[in-house]
Amino acid sequence: MPHSTSTEIAGRIEDLYGAPLADLEAHAQDQPPGMLSALLGMHHDLTLAERSIDFHRDRLAQLIHPELQIGGHEVSHLLDGARRLAEAVAVRDVQAKSVLAVLQSLARVAAPVPSPPTPSLPPAAPARPAESTAPSR
Predict the structure, then answer these.
(1) pLDDT by residue for the chain (137 residues), tens digit each?
(2) Could you tell me which of 34, 87, 32, 26 has the C-alpha nearest to residue 56?
(3) The pTM is what?
(4) 60 CB-side CA count, 13 A
(5) Nearest Cα residue to 4 out of 92, 65, 72
(6) Separation CA 6–CA 9 (nearest Å)
(7) Could you report how far apart the first and last alpha carbons of the chain are, in Å?
(8) DSSP per-residue letters across 76-135
(9) Residue 1: burial class (beta carbons within 10 Å; 0-12, 13-18, 19+)
């Protein structure tokens, strides 16, 4: 299930670059590292953190299922799962904050509008020899 944070970030990256995320990922593979690859990497890390949240939340739900007995052994698993869930949430929050700050600092640059052609001036008339004010002979 995609999370709203990674989905929002993906949409903002797509809006910024004007292409679907899959196309941007393919394009970034053929380019030297730059802002696009950094944003895609941050989005990837955010997505992994969200998957980790889902996994650890589901694992905790299994461990505290009402039909199961919680003994000493299970308590250590519960504590470990809760710690891992908290870490995943912290990573997600940091990644989201960082990528949103970067995206807010960027803006899509509009394509340059070609300036209208300047009308060409007619070719200059050939220079005439200077007329002398002296009487001609």
Answers:
(1) 556 899 999 999 999 999 999 999 999 988 888 999 999 999 999 999 999 999 999 999 998 888 888 888 888 999 999 999 999 999 999 999 999 999 999 877 665 566 666 666 566 666 666 666 666 55
(2) 87
(3) 0.71
(4) 15
(5) 92
(6) 5
(7) 104
(8) HHHHHHHHHHHHHHHHHHHHHHHHHHHHHH--PPPPPPPPPPPPPPPPPPPPPPPPP-SP
(9) exposed
